[in-house]
Design a protein that fits this description.
CATH topology of one domain: Aminopeptidase
Radius of gyration: 15 Å
Structural class: alpha+beta
Distance between the termini: 18 Å
Number of helices: 6
Strand content: 25-35%
Oligomer: single chain
Number of strands: 10
Order of helices and strands: HEEHHHEEEHEHEEEE
Length: 192
């Protein structure tokens, strides 16, 4: 969510301002704005080796201070229509499952990303939360999403495909902070 085009116009960003602070609900999930207090689970869960190795910018372990900085930066950028990051929680008991978000790249294009705790894997939560976030972005004028996955993570590819993403021909290695080296990475795009 950090690689957006900073040449976005104020009009581009204003179109997304109504999402600031909004909660998004799906059948089983609620996507809530991140709070600084969420760092107590965001840091440890995103920094687990089996999670962090699938993310570009998350170290392993992920210290609480780094999680707090991510949350504060995301909230500030959201206030200006540049980012949208949500905690994904079970609707039934508010159990945190992971984080999903999008970063504005300008001209109706957004980068899209997510991570989930291993206890949430294989239950359809990533697809369900993705549908909810994509619906909210579409309703506010987003036209295209960009995403990617490390090729050692075929589960993420399957989630992105279910959400309508297709391979865009970009197969450049990306740096992974958890393992401190570049990994094979495949880019995907979805038209909304």
């Amino acid at each position: 969510m950090l690689d957006q085009d900073l040449n976005a116009t104020p009009a581009d960003n204003a179109a997304m301002a109504p999402l600031a602070g909004e909660t998004i609900e799906t059948q089983r999930l609620v996507l809530t704005p991140l709070k600084v207090e969420d760092a107590v689970w965001v840091g440890p869960e995103s920094g687990r080796p089996e999670v962090a190795r699938n993310l570009a910018l998350v170290p392993e372990p992920n210290p609480a201070l780094a999680a707090e900085m991510f949350i504060l930066m995301s909230r500030a950028r959201e206030a200006h229509g540049l980012d949208l990051a949500r905690a994904v929680r079970l609707k039934s008991d508010q159990t945190p499952l992971g984080v999903i978000g999008a970063g504005h790249r300008g001209d109706g294009v957004w980068s899209f990303g997510y991570w989930y705790s291993p206890s949430a894997w294989g239950k359809g939560y990533a697809t369900e939360a993705g549908e909810g976030l994509i619906g909210a972005l579409r309703a506010r004028g987003a036209r295209r999403l960009k995403a990617g996955y490390f090729t050692h993570n075929p589960a993420s590819r399957r989630v992105l495909e279910k959400l309508g993403f297709e391979h865009n021909g970009q197969d450049d290695p990306e740096y992974c902070a958890a393992i401190l080296k570049r990994q094979p990475h495949r880019g995907m795009t979805a038209a909304l």
